Amino acid sequence: MTSDKSQGTRRPIDLGPGVLVHPTADRQLATEHWLLSTHPRPKQARAEWAEHGVALLPLGTLFSAVRIPGALIQAVAATTDADEIDAFLQEALADGPIICNPRHFRYYALVPASMPLTWRQAADDWSVQDVDCLGRGCYLGVPPLNTTKARREADAYWSVPMPSPAMLCWPLTVARLIAAGAHQLTEAAEPELRAIEP
Hints:
Elements: E1 13-14, E2 20-21, H1 24-36, H2 42-52, E3 55-58, E4 63-69, H3 70-77, H4 82-92, E5 98-101, E6 106-112, H5 115-118, H6 120-126, E7 132-134, E8 139-142, E9 157-160, H7 171-196
Antiparallel strand pairs: 1-2, 3-8, 4-6, 4-7, 5-6, 5-9
Helix pairs in contact: 3-7
């Protein structure tokens, strides 16, 4: 199947028995719809995207988020270059979606809605690293899916865009990333601590 221009719709491309390829634009539209469905007034959220470049979406229904400080991400990625960090996160989290907030230098891994409850003990332990698992009662500033670079220094953007609806980061993979970053930060701090000991 190909685009049906007479109807004004796009259908999946048929590559043979049992193989359908959905055009990127269709996947992006479906993903936008999925994200905005968390908002009680999706049209308002879409207007926020157009006006402010970010929409505040409630967490804990379709997805939650793990807030990770930029210093921890830089430590585990072993770089301060934003493009290299984005590439590292895409590989480390197997294309799991990540939002970067440069203003507060934080990264947000989008995870299943249940993670704040099912990983409560780990989340409590992560608090010493300034990592927080955000769920019900929290809102996240989510940029439009096509914002993959900050337009201004303080603008939120998709460090790793969400490829399809409901495709989220695996909690265990996020936990391993946090543990690796915490280990790197501890190792980096040890020589400094030894240097100031009497």
